[in-house]
Amino acid sequence: MKLDVDVLRYLSKDDFRVLTAVELGMRNHEIVPAELIDRIARLKHGGTYKVLKNLLKHKLLHHDSTKYDGFRLTYLGYDFLAIKTMVNKGVFVSVGRQIGVGKESDIFEVADEDGKIMAMKLHRLGRVSFRAVKSKRDYLKHRSSYNWLYLSRLAALKEFAFMKALQTHGFPVPEAVEHNRHCVIMSLVQGYPLVQVKQLQNPETVFETIIGIIIRLAEHGLIHCDFNEFNIMIDDEEKITVIDFPQMVSVSHRNAKMYFDRDVECIFKFFRKRFNMTFQESIDDNDNSNEGREEAGKLCFSSIDSSAGFLDKELAASGFGKKDEEDIQRFIEGEVESDTNSDSEDGDLVRNLNEADDLNVDSLHLSEQVIYPLAFVVIQDPLAMGNG
Ligand code: ADP
Ligand code: MG
Question: Any idea where the RIO kinase domain is (predicted)?
Fold first, then answer.
């Protein structure tokens, strides 16, 4: 997806205020009624409808009038809210080229004031299966509906929390810098995804390192669940960095063994095919203790001395709780249940209009200033953004 940050240049304070009002409305509404947006935004001189038109023009909102006249954020609109918040905080000042497209994410380079380049991951959970999710909408009657906004935010929070915890425990992962909404800022990994590498100087060593990480993760009570050549980065010194954490689970998960075996098999298969490796000898030769390994050279999940609990304690410290994990896991595993009887837009609307009175948009600290991107590279003049 194209992220034209240049558009930020043309957005006014009112634009962001209305955009934020739509975001707030989406807590209870898949499509936010225009009048509700107007009531939340409370623009001093009115004109919400004109602003809505402008946001629509820039594709930051989507208009839907199938049931009633309403709007929802697009990915781009949500991107801009996150980017603006981060820029206001001084996390970065410019957005550069796209460096990755995952199944459910877009990754861009960003740079801070000192020119340090980092990676920005914008989660797009539900992109693949958005239609499926949409058709099963309203499965949660209350605030935290399972819309893509909520899921993508959850994925970012989980990714940030895991990266931070793994980093603390000495795992080779990117440094977790900041998160906001569906966006995670992390250090830029030098190197390439392993899938792009055709030759290695020391394939055995690389293989051992990677398998060692799987074992050590399990010893810490964790399984990556998407541990493959796309999520392992390798640099010219053949140093490994593991990325992509939203789908990780605890070793106490009921399907833990299946996930673990799948991760292991992915690595074995890749090294067998790409580097013509056979494993029985190399594993046993290089390792005195056969702990955690079967005779066939494969790892045995049950013989790894796992200490579960790592998840709960340390991740909760980053704001990622048990309920969050349950919610995101239910989505990832496709167990989101349909509940077609709970579609009570009118009840929602009344509740929302009442709530709107309590919502103090000013407390959101909407910046007085707009982000001023200079073409594609520099988003704004950092000196002009001091009052965020
Ligand atoms: P997804 O969950 O969509 O698969 P990933 O986190 O795996 O997203 O990222 C997709 C791609 O973006 C990766 O394969 C990699 O090429 C690139 N990428 C992701 N994070 C970084 C990073 N921190 N530094 C450099 N490249 C990255
Ligand atoms: Mg990936």
Answer: 64-284
- Angle of CA points 162, 167, 169, to nearest 5°: 100
Binned at pLDDT 50, 70 and 90, residue 311 comes out as: low
Closest C-alpha to ligand 1, atom 17: 100
Greatest Cα-to-Cα distance within the chain, rounded to the nearest angstrom = 76
Q: Per-residue DSSP letters for 40-95?
A: HH--TT--HHHHHHHHHHTTSEEEE-SSSSEEEE-HHHHHHHHHHHHHHHTS-SEE
H-helix segments, 344-387? 345-358
Q: Determine the distance separating the centroid of ligand 1 and the alpha carbon of 230, expressed in angstroms.
A: 8
Closest ligand by atom to 195 CA: 1
Q: How is residue 136 written in tokens?
A: 């099963």
Q: Which residues line ligand 1 (CB under 6 A)?
A: 99-100, 102-105, 107, 119, 121, 174, 186, 188-189, 193, 230-231, 243-244
- Contact 312/108 with Cβ under 8 angstroms? no
The pTM of this model reads 0.81
Cα(219) to centroid(ligand 2), Å: 23
Does residue 64 contact residue 72 with C-beta atoms inside 8 Å?
A: yes
CA distance 285 to 224: 26
Question: Is residue 226 annotated as part of the catalytic site, yes or no?
Answer: yes
Please identify which of the residues 226, 244, 263, 324 carries the catalytic annotation.
226
Separation of first and last alpha carbons in the chain: 28
> Model confidence over 348-369: pLDDT tens digits?
333 333 333 333 333 333 333 3
Amino acid at 338: S
State how far the Cα of 314 lies from the Cα of 79, in Å rounded to an integer. Answer: 28
